[in-house]
Amino acid sequence: MSEATARTLEDHDPCTDMMVAGERLTCDWAGCLFWPDEETLIVSDLHLEKGSSFARKGQLVPPYDTGATLARLAQRLAVWQPKRVISLGDSFHDPEGHERLPENYLAQLSLLMDNREWIWISGNHDPAPPKDLGGKGASEMLIGNLTFRHEPSRGPMRGEISGHLHPCGKIVKRNRSVRRPCFVSDGFKMILPSFGAYTGGLNIRHSAFDGLFDQSRLSAVLLGNKRVFHIAARNLVA
Q: What is the CATH number of the domain that holds 159?
């Protein structure tokens, strides 16, 4: 979507569509992406068992991240009813994260995966697919016009859907600043926000995003409380 048609902070919709490589994709306020034509839900950077990973290193945090993330994922699956789910890498916070899943979370995840195609894309935190959880592992996946991978490519890459950078957008309005996780796209590629409960974010004006997008076409969908805000990139600040 061009800057001229990007939406504003006054919009209160729970989701909005963006076109990427000719495909209509729906950005959901909870941070997941739905591809209607393929009945596919895409999430990125769940970082399940991040709390237990920190605890192993002596950094004690409340061990509720996995439960909160799975509960939110279950809610969005109930809304969109996808036939396929693609998790874009860093689904677990470390390579052994799936082995630490408590029985109740294993049962919950199994229920979410039941009767669905489930794709685990490899991430830098979890380079190998989780064992004994079901689903299919892949380093990347091509479906129609879209390529799904964890880390975004430098330079032109039409139809790339990725995660990894946990993008956030910041806007200043009426002397107040708002910083929120966001989807970011130039119509050729898109980076998803992180879906995990204990994950932070990186401002899209950070140098890590340099060279990833055509700035003249760039816009972001910021996540609000059960609503989204489609903002032209020229209105986003560092």
A: 3.60.21
